[in-house]
């Protein structure tokens, strides 16, 4: 009687050991895949985030430093931003003093491994244009030094071919910082730059009938776009935070009458009362041209947002020309 019990006990023990061993082996971590990579990249604001996400694909985790509903001029750093910079391997910025707060923030984060990609490197730039030469033109403006564009206009991303250069610079920087995913970065960048070049061809064709025409925007964001497509860009104020002076309003009023412009170009986040009142006085419309400094959270996650917004901008610009 004892022998069968002993065999049964041994069988049960072996079975339990096998089951326990199987459970233990099933808990072993699997090898990391592209979708579980932990290479962290921080970007500054919307266009740089869109371009970086287009290049990164599944190769990196891309986190914007500036929330998508805020522009660089409105950003106030929080402790969590320092933590993000402290953990990141790469920071991608537009450069050209668009992110005037950034150098001090990076220094405070004290991340010795952080590599900074300046997406403006090698891009041909335009000097900031002062509207009007009359003495005291800016006397009524309250310039904030941190929000001043400086000597060079930073809005290079609104020219699709300059955007191609920015994407290629981001690609090269990520390949250097993370060579293990170099093929992915190069493949993603090639696909996106092909779309940007196609976008440029579309815009050039649509705006060719308006070569030499002038359009007027609320702030000075459009010179690169205008140069690319043979247009003239004028504006009411240098940067969005400024209130227009009486001289600004008079200058724009004169220009609208001279060019017979049918609409003024505002920005989604502005809604400036002086600009709207001026349009009403002149009998022209206000249409939107989005410089893509802000967007919704959902839009900021899709690199195609850049293509969609630029096509919409061109359609609205043609309205301003009386299409």
Which terms would index this structure?
323 residues, Rossmann fold, 4-stranded parallel beta sheet, two-stranded parallel ribbon, 11 helices, 46% helix, disordered N terminus
Describe the secondary structure blueprint for this structure.
Elements: H1 2-26, E1 40-43, H2 46-56, E2 61-64, H3 79-87, E3 90-93, H4 102-109, E4 115-118, H5 160-177, H6 182-207, E5 214-219, H7 223-228, E6 232-237, H8 246-259, E7 263-266, H9 273-282, E8 285-288, H10 297-300, H11 304-320
Parallel strand pairs: 1-2, 1-3, 3-4, 5-6, 7-8
Helix pairs in contact: 2-5, 2-6, 3-4, 5-6, 6-11, 8-9
Structural class: alpha/beta
CATH class: Alpha Beta
Radius of gyration: 27 Å
Question: Which consecutive residue ranges, at least 5 long each, have pLDDT under 50?
Answer: 1-35, 132-147
What separation lies between the terminal Cα atoms? 102 Å
State the CATH architecture: 3-Layer(aba) Sandwich
Structure annotation, total helices: 11
Largest sheet: 4 strands, parallel
Give the percentage of residues in beta strands.
5-15%
Overall, the morphology is globular
CATH fold field value: Rossmann fold
Number of strands: 8
Could you describe the 3D structure shown?
The protein has helices at 2-26, 46-56, 79-87, 102-109, 160-177, 182-207, 223-228, 246-259, 273-282, 297-300, 304-320; strands at 40-43, 61-64, 90-93, 115-118, 214-219, 232-237, 263-266, 285-288. With 323 residues, the chain is α/β, with parallel strands linked by helices. It has a four-stranded parallel sheet, with helices on both faces. The protein has a two-stranded parallel sheet with strand order 5-6. Strand 3, helix 4 (102-109) and strand 4 (115-118) form a beta-alpha-beta unit. Helix 2 (46-56) crosses helix 6 (182-207), helix 6 (182-207) runs parallel beside helix 11 (304-320) and helix 8 (246-259) packs parallel to helix 9 (273-282). It starts with a helix and ends with a helix.
């Amino acid at each position: 009687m004892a022998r069968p019990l002993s065999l049964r006990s041994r069988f049960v023990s072996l079975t339990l050991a096998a089951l326990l061993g199987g459970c233990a082996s099933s808990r072993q971590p699997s090898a990391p895949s592209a979708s579980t990579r932990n290479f962290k990249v921080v970007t500054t604001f919307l266009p740089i985030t869109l371009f970086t996400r287009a290049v990164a694909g599944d190769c990196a985790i891309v986190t914007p430093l500036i929330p998508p509903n805020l522009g660089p001029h409105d950003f106030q750093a929080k402790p969590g931003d320092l933590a993000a910079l402290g953990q990141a391997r790469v920071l991608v910025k537009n450069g050209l003093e668009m992110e005037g707060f950034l150098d001090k923030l990076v220094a405070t984060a004290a991340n010795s491994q952080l590599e900074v990609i300046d997406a403006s490197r090698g891009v041909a730039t335009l000097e900031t244009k002062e509207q009007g030469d009359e003495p005291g033109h800016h006397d009524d403006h309250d310039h904030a030094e941190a929000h001043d564009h400086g000597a060079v206009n930073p809005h290079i991303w609104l020219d699709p071919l300059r955007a191609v250069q920015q994407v290629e610079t981001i690609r090269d920087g990520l390949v250097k910082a993370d060579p293990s995913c170099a093929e992915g970065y190069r493949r993603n960048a090639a696909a996106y730059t092909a779309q940007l070049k196609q976008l440029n061809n579309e815009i050039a064709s649509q705006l060719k009938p308006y070569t030499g025409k002038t359009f007027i925007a609320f702030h000075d964001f459009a010179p690169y776009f205008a140069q690319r497509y043979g247009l003239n860009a004028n504006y009411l104020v240098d940067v969005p935070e400024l209130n227009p002076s009486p001289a600004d309003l008079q200058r724009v009023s004169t220009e609208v009458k001279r060019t017979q412009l049918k609409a003024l170009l505002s920005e989604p986040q502005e809604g400036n009362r002086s600009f709207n009142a001026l349009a009403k006085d002149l009998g022209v419309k206000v249409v939107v041209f989005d410089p893509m400094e802000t967007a919704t959270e959902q839009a900021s996650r899709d690199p195609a947002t850049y293509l969609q917004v630029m096509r919409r901008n061109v359609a609205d610009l043609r309205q301003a020309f009386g299409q």
